[in-house]
Specification:
It is a single chain. By secondary structure, the protein is α/β, with parallel strands linked by helices. It is about 35% helix and about 15% strand. It has helices spanning about 35-50, 75-85, 100-115, 130-135, 145-160, 235-245, 265-270, 290-300, 315-330, 345, 355-365; strands at about 5-10, 50-55, 90, 120-125, 170, 175-180, 190, 195, 210-215, 225-230, 250-255, 285, 305-310. β2, α2 and β3 form a beta-alpha-beta unit. The longest helix is centred in the middle third of the chain and has 20 residues, at about 145-160. The protein is globular. It starts with 6 loop residues before the first strand and ends with a helix.
Length: about 375
């Protein structure tokens, strides 16, 4: 645990966690895919004091899954949001089941530069067979094989982020040298299905290593900075936290809150007429802001943070901003990120040393 403060994250993809959330959205359907929409939601989350926003993603087109959603790519949305925010961390979902890890690492390193060191990465898997067709890649059908792809992808990305030492860019006008080639390194990764030589095409990210978030049952603890754990009750969450073994642990919590117009139960019932709220074995709070604050207070004894999944963003995010986060601030339970700090700093994580520079120091010491 990092201390008494609870780090709060919120998922802001689409219109909300419920597949029919768009039916209660406050905007026109056409506005969902506009930059103005994602920037406005991100601004609300940042002003409320959230430490992190996440952006879900997937390769399949709208209608190809049980919960259809239209979206712009998460990395593209994250880059746009990075330019219009200043303190909140930004972590897009990027599966590496079929994507090229070299390209993924370059995109995420670029995002960290754009955001001034506020980028993270939520690692997931592409489970549906249609995803392989969309990528034009052979199907990775076995769960163990998908986990291997994720492990290899994270290993490659982390090695590439270190392939430039921090002082590799020298920009010497006098000598007409831009780079010190001695501080660029080959990664030389060889896995079961591909190899990556390196080095990267993007300088080392400001954070050194982006904050990597993921499910601890799919990735080794050594590859994760933040484990995202689920559980239908506090006991299940506490058990998952004990087994995680990562520097930080966040609980996944789905929320539907009472609003001035309707109770949470009434809002859920309204949406359930059109589709069922998908059961992802997460804690689910349906009720008042006060009861949610009490739940988060209880969770703060077990986890370092919580990622909230609001039922309908346009209805629940304002309640979170006006009632829940202020109540937690009064109890000194939440950690609001400060201007000029990186996401790693906001989460109490150290900036890691460059592996190649550290190896060189050890070699010289011999």
């Amino acid at each position: 645990m990092s201390g008494p403060a609870l780090h709060l994250a919120v998922e802001i993809d689409g219109d909300g966690a419920h597949p029919a959330a768009w039916r209660r959205a406050a905007h026109s359907p056409a506005e969902l895919l506009t930059p103005r929409r994602v920037a406005r939601v991100a601004a609300v989350a940042e002003n409320a004091g959230f430490a992190l926003i996440t952006l879900d993603d997937g390769v399949l087109p709208p209608g190809a899954a049980p919960d259809p959603v239209g979206r712009i790519g998460a990395v593209e949305r994250a880059a746009f949001v990075a330019a219009s925010t200043s303190t909140v961390g930004i972590a897009p979902v990027v599966p590496v089941t079929y994507a090229e890890p070299f390209h993924v690492s370059s995109q995420l390193a670029s995002l960290d530069h754009i955001s001034g060191g506020r980028a993270g990465w939520v690692v997931t898997e592409e489970e549906r067979p249609e995803a392989a067709h969309a990528w034009g890649r052979p199907l990775v059908a076995d769960a163990d094989a998908r986990a291997r792809e994720s492990r290899d992808g994270v290993e490659v990305a982390r090695a590439l982020w270190d392939s430039w030492e921090d002082d590799a860019v020298i920009r010497s006008v006098a000598t007409s040298r831009y780079l010190d080639r001695e501080r660029l390194h080959y990664t030389d990764f060889t896995g079961e299905v591909y190899a990556v030589k390196g080095p990267a095409i993007v300088p080392r990210p400001p954070q050194g290593q982006l904050v990597v978030l993921g499910a601890p049952d799919r990735l080794p603890a050594a590859q994760l900075d933040v484990a995202l754990v689920a559980g239908r009750d506090l006991t299940a969450v506490a058990t998952a936290v004990t087994a995680a073994g990562t520097p930080r642990v966040f609980a996944e919590v789905e929320v539907a809150l009472d609003t001035p117009e309707a109770t949470a139960a009434e809002r859920v019932a309204d949406l359930e007429r059109y589709a069922s709220w998908t059961d992802r074995a997460r804690l689910r709070h349906i009720g008042s802001a006060g009861r949610l604050a009490a739940l988060l207070d209880e969770l703060s004894r077990h986890v370092d943070g919580v990622r909230l999944h609001p039922l309908v963003l346009d209805e629940d995010l304002p309640v979170l901003s006006r009632l829940v986060l202020p109540a937690l601030s009064e109890r000194r339970l939440v950690a609001r990120p400060l201007p000029g700090t990186s996401l790693r700093s906001a989460l109490g994580l150290e900036r890691p040393a460059n592996r190649f520079a550290a190896a060189a120091v050890k070699e010289e010491a011999r």
